[in-house]
Write a structure and sequence with these properties.
Shape: elongated
Low-confidence stretches: 1-27, 95-99, 109-138, 208-216, 558-565, 613-621
Largest sheet: 13 strands, mixed
Number of helices: 21
CATH superfamily of the domain at 481-553: Homing endonucleases
Strand content: 35-45%
Structural class: alpha/beta
CATH architecture of the domain at 481-553: Roll
CATH topology of the domain at 481-553: Endonuclease I-creI
Radius of gyration: 32 Å
Oligomer: single chain
Length: about 850
């Protein structure tokens, strides 16, 4: 399956990205409408046992008798044309066990939704449903050996009939409500999961759902059972402390990355970080080392994707450079990691620096010319400043040509006509000194205060190749050398640049990438000499000739160049560096870090591109009426995460409920976007002492949409606790409603429940309603409820826009801050997806 193209951006046309459909090629499609005969036909085609047919018929008769809920949006509900809906469509003859077996047009649909093959590899189990049937299913062998069952619902009924019969419909019976009854009669597909006693599933079990045909109904059924002490949890890929991330304009350890900073992405663009995360991790850590960079050993969790290219032949360089995402488990020795090349060019004629001068501030204007860039190169290599207001350049007494070049550049670019020379016979050196307090402070501010903090300012990192070439010329003349010697393998020719600044070393390497040169970076520890570490940027092999052209040195043909040519490569998008070594170790409760990046959802760590994204479940026009039943047996833990973005005229009418026995925990994390009408109220019945339930939800309603969501917590045992956190956002004529119930039965002493509902209105015509219900039949309890409704104020917008944000960006930032408490509770890959959907919904919020 193909990977998402690097240039796909979130703000592309919504319909093009998600509203598409492929030609319909069903092997069976029922007639529209529903009657008892169609229910029998559906059950017969699936070869179901008699008890399931009886249950379907009970559901059908309850569906026909039950009225529409009158407390809901009856205008929208009554507009559903149930007789025009196709209740069953079979897209393929059989379910595929490998992705290659999936029909091409269905595979293309999931490709276009951005579900890469590499992402499926991150999951412990995957099921994909298209129309009414599961068309793809896979499950990790190690979990199967532990007794974990993860099947589509139809296969679960065939292979685990007694287990399904024992639990199916016990949490949500057919007569529960009209739409649960409809699902019972027409269900097809969905997931069946059973986790045995004491087994902890640490990787995601996940399903994708897609409706393609017009007027199609999807009625999947999900049943999840966590046996005593079992856990089903979600984890995300992360880096350990110290991984260097390429920022604008610096390189920072990943643990120091802050929200709002700009980082380089795999697409060679700088984009803002909108969320960071730190968490304890237990499990395997993979250490990835690369040829050509001894300064970085990337240590990552097993699921973190890298952008890489598979090596075609063992001892030859690839002829094709097709990048793909893969986890450390996919990588092999000498596969190539992709190093993004920053191709952004922003040329300026000059830059201004404000410096303190004589108890006030003054502005120093510096030119952005090729000559000034070469002068800066000399300063980065041989220069320094002192607090008295002097700029120093240190040269050897034989480097007369370089001294005269610096004097000439000072006159031409800065108008400095006087530069004094001070010989140092003991060191065989000459110190060239410029007396200018303003220039010295400007240089100190721009280029670093000492040799160990030398850096290239960001505006110079984005200048034209012609200017940057002169920068490299200056640095090489000051701190470089050319090694040219014949040995038994042939002639060895290497260019080297040395510095004690780790930032400058990486910046020089990145500038060389922009100039088409792949360089090696090495670090030499000199602590035994009580000196700073030395960094060397080395260029050899076929790239030696290119570097020689840059600095004006002719390179002889290298006999060992062929060997070097197989090591590195570069094109317009990436440089490619081979993997030197991959090792693995097990850790427990080790802090790991990750963050989310707007748009590309990727960043550059240790010089190579990494990703952190999952794919959504999008839909076209139809009715979606699902039922989800969760059963957490004593001391089990279940977390159910949903991020849905249905097409704007889908009716999303679902019933979700859980039962938590003694000491068990159930968490619903629910994000609802899209659809014309959503009605969803996840609930937890706390049936055993010490059971705990939590619902965290976000709803976003745009023009013409109604998100009617909420939660139900039923306390039926002592010492139970529940938390409901609801965040809703209304844009344009969108409407959100919170509809919640907290019920405490007699005898449920020491029950605790907290409810918080927050609504944000983006426009004057937006609407939000709150309908809380509390039924407390026990005195010894603690119950709390808070509700707020707010609007985006002019002061908030003005503050954000005064910091350089456009109005659209400012509103998006405020919305992201509003939902942050919810987002922080999500696994990172889901947080990434949710923020992407929020950005889609926010388009057009201004004006």
């Amino acid at each position: 399956m193909s990977t998402p193209k690097p240039n796909v951006q979130i703000n592309e046309d919504y319909e093009k990205l998600y509203g598409f459909h492929v030609p319909e090629h069903a092997v069976f499609k029922a007639e529209p409408g529903l009657d008892e005969g169609k229910v029998r036909q559906l059950s017969g085609m699936k070869g179901e046992p008699a008890w399931m047919l009886d249950l379907r018929l009970r559901g059908f008769h309850h569906y026909r008798r039950k009225p529409m809920p009158q407390w809901a949006n009856t205008e929208l509900l009554n507009s559903i044309k149930f007789d025009d809906i196709y209740y069953y469509l079979k897209p393929t003859e059989k379910k595929s066990e490998s992705w290659e077996e999936v029909p091409a047009e269905i595979k293309e649909t999931f490709d276009r939704l951005g579900i890469p093959e590499a992402e499926r590899k991150f999951l412990a189990g995957v099921s994909a449903q298209f129309e009414s049937e599961a068309i793809y299913h896979s499950m990790r062998e190690d979990l199967q050996k532990q007794g974990v069952i993860f099947l589509d619902m139809d296969t679960g009924l065939k292979e685990q009939p007694e287990l399904v019969k024992r639990y199916f419909g016990t949490v949500i019976p057919p007569a529960d409500n009209k739409f649960a009854a409809l699902n019972t009669a027409t269900w097809s597909g969905g997931s069946f999961i059973y986790v045995p006693k004491g087994v902890k599933v640490e990787m995601p079990l996940q399903a994708y759902f897609r409706i393609n045909a017009k007027n199609m109904g999807q009625f999947e059924r999900t049943l999840i059972i966590a046996d005593e002490g079992a856990e089903v949890t979600y984890i995300e890929g992360c880096f350990t402390k110290g991984a260097l991330v390429t920022t604008n304009p610096d390189y920072k350890p990943i643990e120091q990355i802050k929200v709002g900073e700009r980082v380089l992405t795999h697409a060679g663009q700088y984009r803002h970080v909108y969320r960071t995360q730190e968490r304890p991790y237990s499990g395997p850590l993979y250490t990835v080392e690369m040829y050509g960079d001894s300064t970085q050993r990337l240590e990552v969790t097993a699921e973190h994707p890298f952008l890489y290219v598979k090596r075609e032949r063992a001892n030859e360089r690839n002829r094709h450079w097709d990048v793909q995402w893969g986890t450390p488990k996919d990588l092999k020795w000498r596969d190539y990691l992709a190093v993004p090349v920053n191709r952004i060019t922003e040329s300026v004629s000059s830059t201004k620096v404000t410096v303190p001068f004589r108890r006030q501030s003054e502005t120093v204007e510096l030119p952005s010319t090729a000559g000034f860039f070469r002068l800066v190169g000399y300063f980065l290599a041989e220069g320094s400043t002192d607090p008295r207001g002097y700029i120093h350049f240190a040269f050897g007494e034989t480097e007369r040509e370089l001294i005269e070049d610096v004097k000439s550049l000072l006159r031409q670019t800065l108008g400095v006509t006087k530069a004094d020379e001070f010989p140092h016979p003991k060191n065989h050196g000459i110190n060239l000194v410029v007396s200018s307090a303003k220039l010295a402070r400007a240089f100190r501010q721009l280029f670093g205060e000492s040799a160990g903090t030398r850096r290239i300012p960001q505006w110079m990192m984005l200048e034209t190749p012609e200017k940057q070439r002169e920068l490299i010329v200056g640095v090489f003349r000051g701190d470089g050398n050319y090694y040219n010697q014949r040995n038994k393998h042939g002639r060895k020719e290497i260019f080297r640049i040395t510095t004690v600044s780790p930032v400058l070393a990486r910046q020089v390497r990145d500038v060389l990438l922009r100039l088409g040169v792949v360089a090696c970076l090495n670090r030499r520890d000199r602590r035994h000499e009580h000196r700073q570490a030395m960094y060397t940027i080395g260029v050899g092999g076929e790239f030696a000739s290119r570097f020689g052209e840059l600095v004006g040195i002719q390179v002889r043909s290298s006999l060992n160049g062929k060997k070097r040519a197989a090591m590195f490569a570069i094109d317009e998008r990436y440089a490619y560096v081979p993997i030197k070594r991959i090792t693995k170790r097990l850790v427990k409760n080790t802090p790991v870090y990750n963050f989310s990046v707007e748009g590309d959802e990727s960043y550059v760590a240790g010089g190579v591109a990494v990703h952190n994204c999952t794919a959504p479940s999008y839909s076209s026009d139809s009715l979606h009426s699902a039922v989800v039943e969760l059963i957490a047996l004593p001391h089990a833990k279940l977390r159910y995460v949903t991020i849905q973005n249905w097409s704007k005229n889908v009716y999303n009418l679902v019933t979700k409920r859980a039962i938590a026995h003694e000491g068990a925990t159930v968490e619903w994390l629910d994000c609802n976007m899209g659809s014309r009408l959503t009605m969803k109220f996840p609930g937890v019945y706390l049936m055993g002492r010490g059971a705990r339930g939590e619902v965290l939800s976000v709803a976003f309603a745009s023009d013409g949409q109604h998100q009617d969501a909420g939660a139900k917590m039923i306390h039926a045992a002592p010492d139970t606790s529940s938390v409901i956190t609801s965040k809703s956002i209304s844009k344009g004529t969108g409407r959100t409603s919170y509809r919640g119930l907290v019920k405490v039965y007699p005898g449920a002493v020491n029950a605790k429940s907290t409810v918080r509902c927050d609504a944000l209105l983006l426009n004057p015509e937006s609407r939000s309603d709150t309908y809380p219900t509390m039924e407390i039949d026990e005195k010894r309890v603690q119950i709390g409820h808070e509700a707020t409704v707010s609007k985006i104020g002019d002061e908030q917008l003005f503050y954000a826009m005064s910091r350089g944000l456009k109005e659209q960006e400012a509103m998006s930032m405020i919305v992201n801050g509003f939902i942050e408490p919810f987002v922080k509770a999500l696994p990172l890959e889901y947080a990434v997806e949710m923020n992407r959907l929020v950005q889609l919904e926010m388009e057009g919020a201004v004006g």
